[in-house]
Amino acid sequence: MKRVANIIFIILSIALAITIFIFSSDTGEESGSKSSSITEIILSIFIRDFHSMSQEERLGLINKYSFLIRKLAHFTEYAALGFLLYGDFYTSNSSFANKKKVVVCASWLLATIYAATDELHQKFVAGRGPSIRDVMIDSMGALFGIMVFMLIILMIEKIKNKTK
Q1: Cα 123 to Cα 55: distance, rounded to the nearest angstrom
Q2: Residues with Cβ < 8 Å from 113, sequence gap 6 or more?
Q3: pLDDT at residue 97 above 80?
Q4: What pLDDT is recorded for position 55?
Q5: How do residues 23-49 score in pLDDT, each as one tens digit?
Q6: What is the pLDDT of residue 2?
Q7: For residue 105, what are the contacts with CB-CB under 8 A and spacing of at least 6?
Q8: In this structure, are residues 86 and 103 in contact, taking their beta carbons and an 8 Å threshold?
Q9: What are the residues whose beta carbons fall under 8 Å from the beta carbon of 99, sequence distance 6 or more?
Q10: Helix or strand or coil: residue 82?
Q11: How far apart are the C-alpha atoms of 147 and 104, rounded to whole Å?
């Protein structure tokens, strides 16, 4: 069962890394348009009368919150990547799979390196550029995802110990 879980974590990690790369391949204009669309959807969920506002008011809110939504997207996608990478190492049969500090460091470092290379990749995309701030946000997202995985494992272990 552990081997199956490991394969699933590996496949999901690779799929997410590819998805991140594809998003980073969008030009600045395409990325901005997607961000605005997603921001509009989110605002329409949380602001009841959003669609009854004037076009100017809606655009003002979209412009106001678009940056925050983009940075939350960075944090979230790398939280998912950190979670999956930790799962990769945690379910592996390698000798360091039981060494929490090593697994945390390896997962976090791999996600952070991927974030840095992803930002470097954006240097070669029209209208985009690398951002150290985004690497830091991505890195903190990865660390958050790792901590969530560790918390889930801790809760599962507590439940198992209670049933014994």
Answers
A1: 33
A2: none
A3: no
A4: 95
A5: 999 999 999 999 999 999 999 999 999
A6: 85
A7: none
A8: yes
A9: none
A10: helix
A11: 9
Query: Tokens for 82?
Result: 């950190």
Chain-wide mean pLDDT for the chain? 94
**Mean pLDDT over residues 135-156, rounded?**
97
DSSP 3-state assignment of 99?
coil
DSSP state of 26: S
Tell me the C-alpha distance between 126 and 30, whole Å: 10
* Total Cβ atoms within 10 A of residue 131: 13
Confidence of residue 1 (pLDDT cuts 50, 70, 90): confident
Residue 95 token pair = 């000798």
Whether residue 48 contacts residue 22, with contact meaning beta carbons closer than 8 Å, is answered with no
And the tokens for 133?
């701030």
| Distances in whole angstroms, Cα of residue 100 to Cα of each of 50, 85, 89, 128 | 46, 13, 10, 37
DSSP 129: -
Domain ranges for the chain: 2-33+77-163
φ, ψ dihedrals at 114, nearest 5°: -65, -40
CA dihedral of residues 25, 65, 141, 129 (deg, nearest 10):
30
Q: What local confidence, expressed as pLDDT, does residue 136 receive?
A: 98
C-alpha distances in Å from residue 104, one per residue of 2, 96, 110: 19, 11, 10
